[in-house]
């Protein structure tokens, strides 16, 4: 778990540096818990050791969700290009609705096609980030535009390290990643981050992660 611990610490550091300088969201992020918690998620959700570590040691803060029925989540900004929303562990069941569980009015039934060990932990533009909780190190997948899920990281640790790289690089560009005229990601940013991601993710994982986040 050392690799994940280091990855999460780096991620929070880069998240905080970016938010302090350019972030739009206040009290709406991922922070270390003051006291570790266990069993803070619905028992219907299969949680891997890596997810258990994440949820036991880190809190998804969402001040606007307090006292409401809003799904509590944390916003993770990657410049002006993308915002990922990570569901709080106590709302993981709700995060699975539409994926593992299908609703029809007040009736809820389990999907026959969704693998129960695939847990949606976050989304971008309503497209899911998925952890395979049955595999070692908790590989991470993403799916968008109704397509099949594709692997974007061999482990949860590598996924958060990749996010750290993207956020740190966004800070280098002062948060301005989109061309004002074309609304496309600046080529300079793509050229900057790809060599940093390649030692961590393979070529296909890098490409798909960038496509998922609308960064290329």
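Sequence proposed for the structure above (216 residues):
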């Amino acid at each position: 778990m050392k690799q994940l611990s280091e990855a999460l610490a780096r991620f929070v550091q880069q998240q905080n540096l970016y938010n302090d300088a350019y972030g739009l969201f206040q009290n709406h992020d991922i922070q270390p818990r003051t006291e570790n918690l266990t069993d803070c998620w619905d028992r219907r959700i299969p949680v891997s050791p890596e997810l258990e570590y994440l949820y036991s040691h880190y809190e998804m803060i969402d001040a606007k969700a307090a006292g409401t029925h809003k799904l509590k989540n944390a916003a993770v900004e990657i410049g002006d290009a993308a915002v990922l929303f990570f569901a709080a562990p106590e709302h993981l069941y709700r995060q699975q609705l539409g994926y593992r569980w299908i609703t029809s009015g007040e009736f809820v039934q389990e999907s026959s096609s969704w693998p129960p060990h695939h847990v949606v932990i976050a989304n971008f533009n309503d497209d899911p980030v998925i952890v395979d909780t049955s595999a070692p190190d908790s590989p991470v997948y993403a799916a968008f535009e109704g397509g099949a899920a594709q692997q974007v990281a061999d482990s949860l640790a590598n996924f958060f390290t990749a996010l750290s790289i993207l956020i740190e690089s966004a800070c280098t560009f002062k948060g301005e990643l989109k061309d004002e005229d074309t609304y496309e990601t600046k080529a300079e940013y793509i050229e900057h981050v790809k060599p940093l991601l390649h030692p961590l993710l393979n070529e296909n994982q890098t490409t798909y992660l960038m496509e998922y986040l609308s960064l290329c």
